[in-house]
Structures are given as structure tokens and as C-alpha cells.
Amino acid sequence: MQDIISEITSSLDAKSGEDIITLDLKDRGGLADAFVLVTGNSETHMKTLAETAEEILAKSGRKCRVEGEHSLNWRLLDGGDVVVHVFSRKGRDFYRLERLWEE
């Protein structure tokens, strides 16, 4: 799984994604083994980042469910054990997932 996370984060970085972080959730049970968080600087940029992550998840054989396709602040790509969150700056500041999962 680390390979897919590395591929996602490096591809998001290549597309100028901002503040890319990975949260390891394996030992926290439930939702996913890892979250990848990234911030886009515009609606178009967020769409590009989401499409990039979706392509990588699909290429790895993971079925990907997308939520928030029409949101200006947040999109979620659920690849099962890996979930990618694409935020606007406003959305990232509002949801603060880093803090939520840090606790």
C-alpha cells in the first residue's frame, strides 16, 4: 500500500498540490488505512488533483467512489484502504482533518 500512497503524493506534488500530507490510520480501525490530504488553489486545480488521484487509484485496481464533485471546498476519493481528500484553502481550514485525526 505504501507504493500507491507514494505514487499519489508524488503525482499530486507534480501537479502543484499544496500542503500534501499522509495520515496513517491503520491502527485506528475503521474507515481506511491511510488518508492523503492535498490543497488546490482554485476549483480547476482541485478538479485536476482529484482526477490525478482517481486515475492512480483506478490503475491500481481500486474501485474509486467520488464525493463532493460539485463542492467548491472539498472532494473525497474513496479507494477503500486509501482515501484522498482534495481541499480548497477554505475547506482545509474548515475541516481541519489533521487535527481531528491527530487527537
Question: Which segments are poorly predicted (pLDDT under 50) over 5 or more consecutive residues?
Answer: none
Task: Find the count of extended strands (DSSP E, 2+ residues).
Answer: 5
> Which structural category fits the helices and strands?
alpha+beta
CATH homology group: Beta Polymerase, domain 2
Q: Kindly give the count of domains.
A: 1
Under the CATH scheme, the architecture is 2-Layer Sandwich
* N-end to C-end Cα span: 24 Å
Number of helices: 4
CATH class: Alpha Beta
Strand content: 25-35%
What is the N-to-C order of secondary-structure elements (H for helix, E for strand)? HEEHEEEHH
The CATH topology comes to Beta Polymerase, domain 2
The residue-averaged pLDDT reads 94
Overall 3D shape: globular
Q: Strand order within the widest sheet?
A: 1-2-5-4-3
SSE order and pairing:
Blueprint: H1 2-14, E1 18-24, E2 34-39, H2 43-59, E3 65-67, E4 74-78, E5 82-87, H3 89-95, H4 97-102
Parallel strand pairs: 2-5
Antiparallel strand pairs: 1-2, 3-4, 4-5
Helix pairs in contact: 1-2
How would you describe what is shown here?
This protein has 103 residues and is of the alpha+beta class. The chain has a single domain (2-102), classed as Beta Polymerase, domain 2 (2-Layer Sandwich). The chain has 4 helices and 5 strands. A 5-stranded mixed beta sheet has the order 1-2-5-4-3. Helix 1 runs antiparallel to helix 2. The two termini are 24 Å apart.
